[in-house]
């Protein structure tokens, strides 16, 4: 409702205006009737209105004097309509000078007032839309600059822009709010995963309120990675009178509401300025790769999982290096023997769980180095993502000991494939598979088994060549076929969806909108020219 204030020293005129039309039916609400400019000005200093109907000649302060003050002192940006018994150009000129929308002579005629109100209603609607568009653009630009800071590729302008618009204070951490696939969770379909991801984002926004711009929906731009980024600082906890740990536990409880899948927080290293947030982000990514080998928790802190003091610290470097050599040479028996020796050594030394964890961390860091040295086109992020994919997909209930063996065998195979240029023929085979079997449930895991290539490595190759994930590539091809069928056949939309591999109409429609900018029905009606939804 558009809030209206009437300002007139004649009570009968003010009452008549309030009864002249059905204000509520037209989308307006009279919130105050003032008898002069001073009274109206006092009301405006502590209340907001959207439209002021004001008389010119009033005791104490004229309507134009009041309008001059509220514009010059920026008290209100409300629309204004002057009601006057004076048909004098000098009054009209002054009214225009003070951003008055209309000048109506008394006695006020209903049709003339209605016409003015309709113009104001449309003007406000347009202003609201423009303001929303401007706000959306500013939020997108802010998010773009925040991502630049997180990824470490930013300049001074980006840094200053972010600092001007978000207040974090000291002690900042980047946090992954991630689906906990390591727990016993059934595999969801793509549409269920995306629905859960959207719910997680909305829950985070609701929890953060005015600080919602600290929540980042797609830091890495991988549609198949279901997690939310979050910039934490102690200011957030202090405002609630909580410690950092208590605040994050509260957040985890709130954002987990109605979620079908458990969540986990991966808290990166604490930094003292937003310009260093990329360091915190990098350590949160490290946690993602390491947590599969750590004791199960809901919240992992980088400082706790990776850092350890000098007391009770034992690094079994000789045994670890032997294991790394076996992995590098892809020798299965030596891998098993080295892992047996590693766990036997840690047990005999009676070291702490944290020291065992550090030995595993050392091993994984060295594995990342091996992969990067084997193929210069592979970066640290890709290797950590591979490790995360593997530990997320395997059942860890068998324990760290058994899982470490299966992981090392898998990583040895991954390293071996990095030595061979597989991107050519293999990717051509995958392209053919998509073209011939797009309606089937194609997955990288199944294709990897068929063509004897590690599925995570295949995903990396695919993203490098096509600039998108395999899932997105398959989806785009399916939608392309569906679009052609919509234009060239009279098949039902539900039949076309089934034929291209989508058995859920809502999911098919959402995918089609993302790819073509409109619903399948509108696409068919428009002859392939996208319409706005």
Itemize the secondary structure elements and their pairings.
Blueprint: E1 2-7, H1 11-20, E2 28-34, H2 37-44, E3 51-55, H3 63-72, E4 79-84, H4 89-97, E5 102-105, H5 110-151, H6 156-165, E6 172-179, H7 190-208, E7 215-216, E8 227-233, H8 234-239, H9 244-255, E9 263-267, H10 277-290, E10 299-301, H11 302-306, H12 317-329, H13 332-349, H14 353-374, H15 380-393, H16 400-418, H17 423-437, H18 444-451, H19 455-466, H20 470-488, H21 493-499, H22 505-516, H23 520-525
Percent in strands: 5-15%
Number of continuous helical runs: 23
Described by strand count, sense and barrel closure, the largest sheet is:
5 strands, parallel
DSSP strand tally: 10
Shape: elongated
Distance between the termini: 26 Å
Helix percent band: 55-70%
